[in-house]
């Protein structure tokens, strides 16, 4: 069964400090991993996906198959990064749905 | 390009009633997925429609159903409402079906359903 775990419900960091949002997954095959973000009073939107290996708004995430993790990182947090972050997994077999973690609320303190 | 729209934005119903929610995808998108979002369970997949066919269904009772029309607009219906159905229902559209590889989903603002 597919499962995504985000162990922290809330993460508070000071502006300028590094931030790491944790995501661990359970899936027997080769999944596709995503990070979605929801800013206050905005829609849920895609932040980045592992196959793109891109940096969006200074955030990066590396898929670690050995540790089954896909942690989201940013070296210097900014106040506008405050939002709800969701890690999501999509299996690679058949019509598998997108499975979301329960989310981590990031609060960047000035 | 207009985003995903959902109507109504807010609904209040009583137990036992039924409700229909509507979702209009981004123009050209043929895949529509529905999710239920609650504080306790987070985002849970309900179902996905592509070209008027249900391609996948989450682990929800049969009271939850949906359909898609030829213009890709989708509706979901919940019958015999229960208190636990109170949630934010999100619709997301994409150009290809979810099984078609890494495929960005665009989310609507959601419909907030409250069951009294």
How is this structure best described in words?
The complex is a heterodimer of chains A (about 110) and B (about 120). Helices cover about 0% and strands about 45% of the residues of chain A. Chain A has strands spanning about 5, 10-15, 20, 25, 30-40, 45-50, 60, 70-75, 85-90, 100, 105-110. Chain A is mainly β. In chain A, a hairpin with a 7-residue loop joins β9 (about 85-90) and β10. In chain A, strands 2, 5, 6, 9, 10 and 11 form a 6-stranded mixed beta sheet that branches. Chain A has a 3-stranded antiparallel beta sheet with strand order 3-8-7, with no helix packed on it. Chain B is an all-beta fold and about 120 residues long. Chain B is built from no helices and 11 strands. In chain B, the strands form 2 sheets. In chain B, strands 2, 4, 5, 6, 9, 10 and 11 form a 7-stranded mixed beta sheet that branches. In chain B, strands 1-3-8-7 form a 4-stranded antiparallel beta sheet, with no helix packed on it. Chain B starts with a strand and ends with a strand. The mean pLDDT of chain B is about 90. The chains are: A mainly beta (about 110), B mainly beta (about 120). The interface of A and B includes residues 86, 94, 101, 102 and 103 of A.
Record keyword descriptors for this entry.
heterodimer; A: 110 residues; mainly beta; six-stranded mixed sheet; three-stranded antiparallel sheet; 44% strand; globular; B: 116 residues
Compute the separation of the termini of chain B in Å. Answer: 37 Å
Biggest beta sheet attributes of chain A: 6 strands, mixed
The largest β sheet of chain B comes out as:
7 strands, mixed
Low-pLDDT segments, ≥5 res of chain A: none
- The portion of residues assigned to helices of chain A is under 10%
Strand content of chain A: 35-45%
Gyration radius of chain A (Cα, Å) is: 14 Å
Label the overall shape of chain A: globular
- The number of helical elements of chain B comes to 0
Number of strands of chain A: 11
Q: Please state the overall shape of chain B, judged from the principal axes of the Cα atoms.
A: globular
Order of helices and strands of chain A: EEEEEEEEEEE
Count the beta strands of chain B: 11
Helix/strand/pairing class of chain B, anyone? mainly beta
Largest inter-chain contact set: A-B, 20 and 27 residues
The oligomerization state is heterodimer
Written as H for each helix and E for each strand, in order along the chain, the element string of chain B is: EEEEEEEEEEE
User: Uncertain spans of chain B, ≥5 residues at pLDDT below 50?
Assistant: none
């Amino acid at each position: 069964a597919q499962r995504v775990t985000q162990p922290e419900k809330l993460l508070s960091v000071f502006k300028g400090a590094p931030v790491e949002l944790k995501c661990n997954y359970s899936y027997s095959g080769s999944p596709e991993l995503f990070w979605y973000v929801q800013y206050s009073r905005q829609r849920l939107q895609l932040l980045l996906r592992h196959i793109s290996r891109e940096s969006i708004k200074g955030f990066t995430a590396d898929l670690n198959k050995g540790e089954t993790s896909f942690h989201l990182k940013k070296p210097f947090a900014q106040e506008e990064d405050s939002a709800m972050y969701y890690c999501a997994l999509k299996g690679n077999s058949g019509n598998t749905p997108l499975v979301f973690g329960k989310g981590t609320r990031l609060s960047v303190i000035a | 390009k207009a985003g995903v729209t959902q109507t109504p934005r807010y609904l209040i119903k009583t137990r036992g009633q039924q409700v229909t929610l509507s979702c209009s995808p981004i123009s050209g998108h043929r895949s529509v997925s529905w999710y239920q979002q609650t504080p306790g369970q987070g985002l849970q997949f309900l179902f996905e429609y592509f070209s008027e066919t249900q391609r996948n269904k989450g682990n929800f009772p049969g009271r939850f159903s949906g359909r898609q029309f030829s213009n890709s607009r989708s509706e979901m219906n919940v019958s015999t409402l229960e208190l636990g159905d109170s949630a934010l229902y999100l619709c997301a559209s994409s150009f290809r079906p979810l099984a078609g590889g890494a495929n960005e989903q665009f989310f609507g603002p959601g419909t907030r359903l409250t069951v009294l």
